[in-house]
Amino acid sequence: MNPPLHLAAPYFGQPSPEGRPQAYRPDRHLLSAARLAYSLRRPLLLTGEPGCGKTDFAWVLADQLGKQHKLPPETRMPFICRVNSQTRAQDLLYHYDALQRLSDAQHGVDPTLAQDPRHYVELRELGLGLLSGARAVVLIDEIDKAPRDLPNDLLHVVEEGWFRIPELRRVPEEGTIKDPHGVPLDHEMRPPQSRGRPLIVITSNAERHLPEPFLRRCVFFHVRPPDADALRDILYRRLGDGQTALRDSQLRVYLALRAEGLGLTKRPSTAELLDWVHALYALPDRAEAEAAVLEFGAAIDPNTLRLGGGLEWLDLPGLPCLIKLQEDLERLGGGQG
Prior knowledge:
By secondary structure, this protein is an alpha/beta fold. It has helices at residues 28-40, 54-68, 89-93, 98-107, 125-132, 150-153, 155-160, 212-216, 228-239, 244-258, 270-282, 286-299, 326-331; strands spanning 12-13, 22-23, 44-47, 79-82, 94-96, 121-123, 137-141, 163-164, 188-189, 199-204, 219-222.
């Protein structure tokens, strides 16, 4: 088992584009699930609607583990595996450049280089994370986008904590060759037992079901959208500009757009709320836009969350940051012609 995972406030998620740390407010049950996953050396599987903070939580854990292991601040970030519809398990572990080896064998300055395949292997994020041990966090983001076989192909890796590189089945025993990241290469990439296991965080938007054998090996947590108090705290922590009335109005507008009564197919997420708030700074008529948002906030009934005052949703400044479907625009009173 890994040593205990110490999680203590403050918590910071993925940095902003300007490099500033972003405050994060995790649910206490989410923190408990992370401790369990780390202690049991199991992946932490997070589901939830897009933009609810699943990816950011991997950055929180990387920051916390980095502090626990006294790592420099600039290294406290997860190894990020980005998944797409063509991703294979090998793509997350390592890359073998067979074409470059063939080219070197035929036309290279030193043809003997091609005799050892280790010169053509580079570890990828999951492979690097496994070999880094218990001080690392690996993020496998949006695994439900991957081919159906990917979760099953990762079963051995997530359970055993090591992997094979078949291309290195026959390599000279003498000498050590390292990949570009400085990691010695071998047929079986086994980290020392003393290093423990990294915390693997896997996110899914639940676009499809994952295989049951894979689920059995995970600690599961469903990240729910923040409630009003948590959202208010997020806005104040991340902006901290003292515009309390404006932030309260923005929150009322956001909650009204998420209300069941509007029947939107895709309700705006927390990430889209933050995009909208920041987008208002970029508008050329910022003061006019903020005044309009205050007006919208005042026109929303706090009990029914319905918009009154003769206002139309389509006149809300920055609405395209919040509403992303034509059918939802039509439900709000019109479309984009």
